[in-house]
Amino acid sequence: MAEQGWYNAAGDPPGTQRYWDGNQWLGDAVYEPATPATIPPPPGGYAYAAEAVAAPTFPRALKAIAIILSILKVIPLGFVTFGLIIVASVANDFDDELGAIGFGLDGLLGAALVVLLVLALVGALLLGFQFVGALKERPMMVFIPALLMSLLDGLATLGAWASWNEDRNSPFLNEGGPGGAIMITAVLVAQVYVAVHATRAKNR
Are 27 and 40 in contact (CB under 8 A)? Predict the structure, then answer.
């Protein structure tokens, strides 16, 4: 007799399939395509097996949040990168004047601009991986950049709250509220959500 698998059993309607375990037919005849051929239906029938196999492994909410977060974060990052390039260009034009006081591009200012520019480009690269990974529904491609950006966002959140607390205790800078710190915290929460749920999707 045939090996285990999905076949059209004698007496069943044309176009249907039933699982053969090597000795007997199991479950009911179904019109759905057999998926996968090596897994027999459970005692409850094929409908339960089809539901289990067809369950999505990449949640829609995770995909939407990862894409939206990547777009929202890359916009200010692009402005920062553009600004750094302009500052570097201007500083290069006045390199001789700045160099006279020890802050030419070959000094502290140049090093700071290079570091900031590299960080901005790395951030853009991570956001690009997260965006493409979400579009293609690849959990690992989302998880790794999301984890790294969660760490960076955590540092930014600590810095934002520390800065607000310092301004709040200052007699000259105590008019502003914690709006900026709250916004950065919300971004951190969203980024952590993406990282956590991406690794859950990876383990399914």
Answer: yes
